[in-house]
Amino acid sequence: MPYAQVVALDLAGGDQQRAVALRAAHHAVTAVDGGGMSAWLALGAGCVAEGAEAPKHLRPMPSYAGDVLDSAQSHGDLLLQVTGASPGAVSEAVTRTLRSLPQWRVRWRIAGARPGNRTENGRGIARNPFHFTEGYGNPADREEVVERAMVKGGQGEPAWAVGGSYQVVRIIRLAVELWDRDSVPEQERVMGRRRDGRWLDGTPSTERADFGSDRHGGITPLDAHVRRAAPDPGDPPPLVRRGYNYRRGADDEGMIFSCFQRDLAQGFEAVQRRLRGEALAKYALTVGGGYFFVPPTGEHWIRAVTAM
Ligand code: HEM
Q1: Would you say residue 177 has pLDDT above 80?
Q2: Number of compact structural domains in the chain
Q3: Is residue 127 part of a domain?
Q4: CB 166 within 8 A of CB 238
Q5: Beta carbons of 200 and 219 less than 8 angstroms apart
Q6: Residues 6 or more apart whose Cβ sits within 8 Å of residue 235
Q7: What's residue 307's pLDDT?
Q8: 3-23 average pLDDT score
Q9: What separation in Å is there between the alpha carbon of 135 and the centre of ligand 1?
Q10: Residues β-bridged to residue 120
Q11: pLDDT at residue 302 tops 90
C-alpha cells in the first residue's frame, strides 16, 4: 500500500505492566487491520514477554560507519506500523490507536509514501527520492519472500519466534539537492542500475546482470550500490526490502528504509557491512531507526511487502 506510518513506542509505566500493555497494543492493532489497511507490531530489544527467551539477534541497532543516530528517532520498546491507501486514513488510524494505548508513550513517529506504487510481476515497485525505481531486487513470489524473511524451525531461535521476522528500520536522510546536480549517467553509475531499473549492461530490470564478465567494474563500478549490496547476482542477499519516502520540510527528506529477514546477521548486517565506502554514501545519512522483531501473530507484514 502506498502510505505508511512507522511509530516507535516506549513503555510508559513500570516493567511489571509490560504483559498487559503488550496485550492492549495487540488488540488495538487487530482492530485497525483489514478494510484496506495493514497494521502490525514488532518488539524492540528488551520487550520480549516475561520469562520468554528473546530472539537471538535482537539487540538495539548499533551505529554503523557514517551513521549519526539521534536517540529521539532511534530504537524503542515497540514498533507500530500502519499502511494504507491514503495518508489521512493511515494517520487517523495511528492517532486512534495511540489514544487507546495510554500504557505506551510515542518515542518517534514518521510518515512515508511510495510514489508510483505498483506491482510488477509480483514485486512491489516504487520511485525513491533520487528518482530511481526500487523493488526489482526483491523476490517475485511469496515462497521466496517467506524463504528470505520468515524465521524457520532449526535456526536456533526460540520456538515462539518461528514464523516471525526481524524488521530493520533505517531513517535515511538523502541529499537530494546535491544528487540532482549530478548528471543522470553519473547517478546511474552510483546506483548500478538505470533509473527505470535496467542494469547498466542492458539486462532487463527483472533479470540478473552478470558481473562475472565485468570484473574490473568498467560497466558497473565496483562501488556501485547494487554491486556492493549483491556482488553475486546469482545469490541475492536473504532479505526483503520495503521503503517509503519521507519529507519533513524543504531540507529534510529521504527514505524510511525497512527490510525483513529471518537472520539479521546474514540479512541486513552482511549487506550493510558491504555497503561501507559505497559511492552512494556521500548522499545519505542515517539518523534513526532500529532493530525489531515481528512476532508470528499473522502475516500482515508479508501482505504489506508483497501487495501494492
Ligand atoms: C541510501 C538509501 C538507499 C537508496 C537510495 C537505495 C536504492 C536502491 C536501488 C535504486 C536499488 C535497485 C533496485 C532494487 O533492486 O530495488 C537498490 C537495491 C538494493 N538495495 Fe538499496 N538503497 C538504499 C539503501 C539500502 C540499504 C541501507 C540497504 C541494506 C543494508 C540496501 C540494500 C539493497 C539491496 C539488497 C538491493 C538489491 C540488490 C540486488 O539483489 O540486486 N539498500 N537500492
Answers
A1: yes
A2: 1
A3: yes
A4: no
A5: yes
A6: none
A7: 64
A8: 90
A9: 8
A10: 123
A11: no
Contact in structure between 278 and 172 (CB atoms under 8 Å): no
Q: Is the pLDDT of residue 24 over 60?
A: yes
Pocket test for ligand 1, best of 64, 123, 134, 194 (most atoms within 8 A of CB): 134
Residue 240 parent element (H or E): strand 240-241
Q: Hey, what's the cell of 223?
A: 562501488
Grid coordinates representing 47 are: 520487550
Least confident range from 91-95, 126-130, 212-216, 304-308: namely 304-308
Q: Would residue 141 count as lying in a domain?
A: yes
Those residues with Cβ within 8 angstroms of residue 252's Cβ, 6 or more apart along the chain or in another chain: 173
Note down the domain range covering 129.
47-76+118-306
88's grid cell: 489521512
Say if ligand 1 is within 6 A of residue 145 CB. Answer: no
CA of 67 to the centre of ligand 1 (A): 17
In a domain, 275, yes or no: yes
Is there a domain that residue 27 lies in? no
Distance between CA atoms of residues 122 and 203, nearest Å? 19
As a whole-number percent, the residues of the chain with pLDDT over 90 amount to 86
